[in-house]
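Q: What would this chain look like folded?
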Amino acid sequence: MEGDKANGGGGGDVVLLNCFVSPFGNRVKIALARKGVAYEEKSENLAAKSPLLLSSNPVHAKIPVLLVGGKAVSESLVILEFVEEVFSSAGEPLLPGDPYARAQARFWASYIDTKLPECAKRVWQSPKGAAAAEEGKRDMVAVLNTLEAELGGKPYFGGEAFGYVDVALVPFAPWFTTYERLGGFSVAAECPALAAWAARCVRENECVAASLPEAESVFQFVCGMRKHFGLD
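A: My prediction, written as structure tokens:
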């Protein structure tokens, strides 16, 4: 840690339990980087979860988990709000100051988590060309179109500044290549403004660029998973 400025008065060591391809864990990485919080990342093998993960998140046994001073916080959107509160004096805010704008940001982050992961799983966890994969692709394009409509002509979802909804969505961008190759479509062709937004997030925000895996690494990881489960 780098003292009170970095830890925002939260105290204690900060440890993130994560898997490098996880959009949910990588949200937390972006938030911590934006706040300038020093932390240790511990990589989890989700096929053989560590005793630390199982004891830190006994209800769901899922990543991410953020440990601050030995206390565990689970669920990525909950962690983002925790980071915003505990490290409030550090870095740039994640949520807008206006209550209505905060409510809108929370709505769209919830929309992302309710809609996108489920249809994404049908694309990458189904045999290529299967009905489930085709339905997943169709539903994913509809979700991305809805998000693109909400983005409109703004640089970021909250307006001029990178913020909460951007943090919630941009970790899915390295997965776009995987969705495209397995689903047989192009995000840039279907949602050009959203594709440009994703590139802008990486180009203009070091906290994003430093926190996300390469798209090809994600694809190779997924290929290994699909081979393991006999999908290819």
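The chain has a mean pLDDT of 93.
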